[in-house]
Predict the structure.
Amino acid sequence: MSIQYVLRRLGIFFLIIWVASTLNFIIPRLAPGDPIGAILGQMQTQGATVANSAEIIATFRERFGLDDPLYIQYGKYLWSLARFDLGYSIAFFPAKVTDIVGNALPYTIGLLTVTTLITFSMGIFAGALLVWHATPRLAKIVITFFMMLAPIPYYLLAIIFVSVLAFSLGIFPYSGIVSVGRLPSQGFDLSYILDVLYHSTLPALSIIIAGVGGWILGMRGMMVTVLGEDYLTLAEAKGLRERRIFFAYAMRNAMLPQFTGLAISLGYVVSGATIVELIFSYPGMGYRLFQAISTNDFPVIQGITFFLVVSIAVAILVIDLIYPKLDPRITYNRR
């Protein structure tokens, strides 16, 4: 891989971030309504008395720079992003956006990274087994059943799980990240970690079961194209074991294109599973993004989507650079 190609990819990487950040600045401001006025309106509907509301709105608009011309706001926005200064939340002032994101990010990464890797591993293995000639018929029936669940939205499965496993049977909790009143102790706390895993079981199950079917379909299609290759026939003629042919020759070559989808899926981890997090009151990035959109909290919206853009761009850049290592047949050198 040439240095020129790496530099060109880095240039495209920063261009993508700039374009996406610009859209991230423009789109929230196209939404109708005033964020400061919306927050004061919510306070009044909840019974709070707000005196001199006009002065408060003017003061907050000046504090957040909303009275400046758009080009000045845009310049300040880009300069802040360059310094990784995401500003303050409007709805939860004086909380910093970085603090809000920092508190939500570990929950989202912990949940979605694990579920994405589990879904990917289960999906590609099941998709390969689905078309392999030595797979038992019962296993194919079970895999086909999970493949049929692919069109079902994950939030619909989440609602079903809450209704059956949480409310009806009481096996799992229906909301929250830990038991009520539970606080982590100093140092390593195994019981706290187990409590977090226990509360994360239903959100994880809804994402895994709804997502595994898509990976099965993709791997099944790639596996079909691999089965007729000459190197499989040669491996069988050499008398190699069935298991080695399946894993080292068929599955290994069929799963290579799936890594691109895995990289993009891992990039989307930062965005969170918004509806699932809302259903389970899971304090992740999706839940915080929903709150920010509901209150027109521009800084939080821009902060979360900025992290999303960077994570996806980094994931695509990494997979693009390491793809020749995964598949030696691919080269970016000009001949």
